[in-house]
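[Q] Does anyone have a clean structure-token version of this?
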Amino acid sequence: MNSMLRKSVLGIAGVAFTGGLFAGPVAAHADVTPVKTVPVAAVQADVRADKPDMGKLLPHGAPANQSMIELNDEQVGNVKAIIAATKKAGMDERAAVVSIATALQESKLENLGHLGDRNDHDSQGLFQQRPSSGWGTVEQITDPEYSTLAFLKGLKQVDGWQDMPLTEAAQTVQVSAYPDHYAQWEQQAADLVAEHWTS
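[A] Here you go.
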């Protein structure tokens, strides 16, 4: 063993020995009250890194006068389809909140076909997109994945949509006659994304 290596080993051993001497007497006076332990698995279950942060989902908080509806299995399936399409588009949870709030306002998350006189022109699908306005064919816009991707393509083109109030971002894409109505669904949309983003 060369002398430099020997000095390093002896130095480390001396530090460890000295540390032990100092730790001994101090530890003798330490509080020995039993501490309740929690299994690591239980701690990890409470802190889910994959669960979306509500601060990110609702960066401006939820506006006043929120609406909420009970969802059936078909509507929940459409929520999941919107979330899957959002991920496919490479967009984040906030984009999913904007999309779901928009679909809640436009169709109550029901994939609507043409409703004749009860419908707005030829609007169809979750987002009430119009074939005559270039959103796609009837078959395309009544496909939840396609219609979501079409909505998100429009959202991506809105400069600074991430920092806008939800209703302003949605309105810029949708050009609705009722531009403020999207805001009422923001809390339910955020709750749905929080619940289903990782499911």
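[Q] Thanks! Anything notable?
[A] Confidence is low (pLDDT under 50) at residues 3-48.
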